[in-house]
Structures are given as C-alpha cells and as structure tokens.
Design a protein that fits this description.
Layout: H1 2-15, H2 17-44, E1 46-47, E2 54-55, H3 59-81, H4 91-111, H5 117-124, H6 128-137, E3 141-142, H7 145-162, H8 179-205, H9 209-231, H10 233-243, H11 247-262, H12 265-274, H13 276-298, H14 304-323, E4 328-329
Antiparallel strand pairs: 1-2, 3-4
Helix pairs in contact: 2-11, 2-12, 2-13, 3-9, 3-11, 4-8, 4-9, 5-8, 5-13, 6-8, 7-14, 12-13, 13-14
Length: 332
Amino acid sequence: MAAEKGAGKAASLWDNMRIRFTVCFIGVFVCYFYYGILQETITRGDYGQGDKKERFSFARTLVFVQCIINALFAKILIQFFESSKPDHTKSWLYGLCSLSYLGAMVSSNSALQYVNYPTQVLGKSCKPIPVMILGVTILKKRYPMAKYLCVLLIVSGVALFLYKPNKSSSVADDHVFGFGEILLLVSLTLDGLTGVAQDHMRARFQTSANHMMLNINMWSTLVLGSAVLWTGEVWEFLSFTERHPSILYDILLFGLTSALGQVGTFIFMTVVYFGPLTCSIVTTTRKFFTILGSVILFGNRMSSMQWVGTILVFVGLGLDAKFGKSPKKTTH
C-alpha cells in the first residue's frame, strides 16, 4: 500500500510541468556542459611535467571510443523501448551517412588543437548556415525571409568574433582564419550533409532516432576501427594512456555524456513535452554558458568585440528557432 502511494506521488510530481521542465533542462545542460568541459580538458590539456609535457593528439581514436559507447547506449534504448519496431532503412544509407558524421566529429575534435574552445563552440553553432545552403541547393527548399535574416545575424556575429584589428602582437596564433577555422568549416559542411541524409531517411523510411544512432555509430566504429589500426594510431593511444592513465576516466565520462546528448534522452523528452522551439532555446543557452565556463575555468580570454559577436550569434540562433523553421518546397 505504501509502495503504491509512493509510486502515485512520483507520478503526480512528474505531471507537474515545472518539475518536468526543470528535469529536462538540468539533464540537457549538465550532459552537454560537462561534455564540453571534458572535450577541452582532453584535447587541450597538458599531460606530464617539465620537458615530458605532451598533448593528446588522437582525435580519431577519441571519436572511435565515442562511437562505441553511442552504439551501445542506442542498442540498450532500442532493446527496452523499440524492440518490436522494425527498421526498413537501407544499410548503405547508414554507411554513407556515417562518413559525413565521422568527418564532422573528427574535424571538430582536431580543430581544438589549433583554436580555443569558445571558437570551436561558436563555429559549431553556425550549423543553420550549411543546413540552409544545402537545403536550397540539394533539396530545392525555399525558406522564409526571417530565416535569411537570422543567418545574416549569425554570420555577422561570427565575423565580429573572428575579426582582429591590425595591431602589433607577439601572440603566435594571432590570425584571422587559420587551419583550425578551416577544420571547423569542414565540420560544419559535413554536419549539413549529415542533416540532409538524416532528413531523407526520416522522410523515406520513418527511421527512428535510436535506430539511426545505432546504425550510424556501428558503421562509424567499423570505419574508424579500420583507420586507427591501419595507421597504428590505436597503439600510440594505448601507449599514451599507459603514461597518463587518468585520461581514461575523462574519456569514459566524455563518451557517456556524448551518448546521453547525442542519443537524445533529455533532448527527446524536451521535444516531446515542450516542443522543438523550447529545445532549441535550451540547447542554445547551454552553448552560451559552455563558452562562459570555458572562459572562467580554462582562462580563454575574449575581447569585448568577441563577446558582442558571440551575443549576436546566439540572438540569431534564438530568433532562428522561433521564426526560421518553416521551409517551403519549390513548386515546379
């Protein structure tokens, strides 16, 4: 009897929309925020002491571990919640999608060897730009004027963030557009291609998010596993972990927070209960505070102009979430 009362009380608490939103918000915020902190800790941290200091430079192996954990997590979710739902999506589509998915993640992680974390987060926040360009050129979509204005606002913010006035500086990486920014551009473009492929799978085969994440990550594991074995990177990675075993704990947590974020446990609940607009606002807020956390925790200083550019980007993302989500197909 007491157990029934306890269960009923828990159910009634979950029915409270404020409590439900708080759980969803904290879940998204904590998973993605911690994911970002771990990513910067792993890829930009110094390991060892004195002359033996070294950087982690195994982006492909890191993504390989990430894909394994994502696939396992998606498999568990399918086993518990979608075991009776068949998946009719063609296997070769998953294989093609995994190539752009992999390229985007490896490029994004590799970029952190050349740019600081705020630059990487801001660069990855520009996803609406390649999505819109590819939507117009490949899918023949037409977007409302508000979408173009939001993208213009995002581009202006990024331009302000990257702009550096001509001042004599002794800083070695004082550049406007270098290799790290090129890697972010590649990652963004591949993100756009992945989005187009996933939209096609959802429209044609009604592919669920969990089946998509399982199969794309399984293909990615196969491709990356072959790559790290062929290049010998996996043996260098294992040697690195022997010298610095503490990194294994960070990599495991990185993979788990990635799985919770990418497979979308809390994001899925936010979309279902509160809609895609609320979800976009929550994830955009998370990105801004991730940049703030990086500045505070890792000392990544930003100029006043860069803060203005950052705010413009996130205002553009927020307005895009509210007004820019109604693409219309062209009529022939």
